[in-house]
Amino acid sequence: MPEGDTVYRATARLHRALAGKSILRSDFRVPSLSTVDLAGYAVAEVVPRGKHLLMHLQPPATADPEFNQPPLTLHSHLLMEGRWDLYGQGERFRRPAHTARVVLSFDGVTAVGFDIAQVKLVPTAEETQLVGHLGPDLLGTDWDAPLAIENFRAHPHRGIGEALLDQRLMAGVGNVYRCEVLFLTRLHPLTPIGQVVNLGKVIEMSQRLLEVNKDRPRRVTTGVARTREPYWVYRRAGSPCLRCGEKILLLKIAAEDSGLERDCYFCPSCQPARNT
Ligand SMILES: [Zn+2]
């Protein structure tokens, strides 16, 4: 699953290349959208919403306003493998063509969405049906820390490690940041939210890590001076803790809603379980 900062960067790149440009040809290789033709629509902006990428499209102008098409939102969720690439005129795809799901051709540039698991097209007015379930966006213009804290507090019995990945509470944290934030706030992943006294700090740390990394090509949570070891605990099971030397452990935590298990890395010495 990409982290919020990955989607933010992908979005910024698309926005720079496409904003203001009109679509010359569109080719949707997903059954539900195979007959859609977006020729004439112009890209107003490309914005991130948590891990979702939203392309806002303005309809072509018509002589008679009565025949105006509504503004549309092209929504894509990159999930594990998905990505958007940009190609110049005549340039060959750098990925297998059969994995292309959406091909949007503009004057001089083509945007291709590869392996995108979810792609939807809705009137922009109905966009909230797609992303309205998301909690406050850590990198959004409407970021709301008190609301995020309130959302977590409403689930006192859930483990903080499990809840941090729940995009309905707060949008943008993936597995890397989940592990790193817990290390930096010295919390055992299974600590029930009701026992997390420094919840505000957890939220603040999540926001800060995404913010400092959002324009960096390489993600680092240990500080720029430590780029050889970019993470404190993520994917470091069995290696010594960079702070105390204890062996980093791995815990599988199932998501409450999907049951999907994700690896969670932590230092048993820096992040001790509290028996209360
Ligand atoms: Zn440690």
From TrEMBL:
All residue ranges annotated as the FPG-type domain in the record: 232-272
Gene3D superfamilies: 1.10.8.50, MutM-like, N-terminal
Keywords: DNA damage, DNA repair, DNA-binding, Endonuclease, Glycosidase, Hydrolase, Lyase, Metal-binding, Multifunctional enzyme, Nuclease, Zinc, Zinc-finger
GO molecular function terms noted in the UniProt entry: class I DNA-(apurinic or apyrimidinic site) endonuclease activity; hydrolase activity, acting on glycosyl bonds
Formamidopyrimidine-DNA glycosylase catalytic domain span: 2-100
PANTHER family assigned: ENDONUCLEASE 8 (PTHR42697)
Family membership noted in the UniProt record: Belongs to the FPG family.
Name of the molecule in the record: DNA-(apurinic or apyrimidinic site) lyase
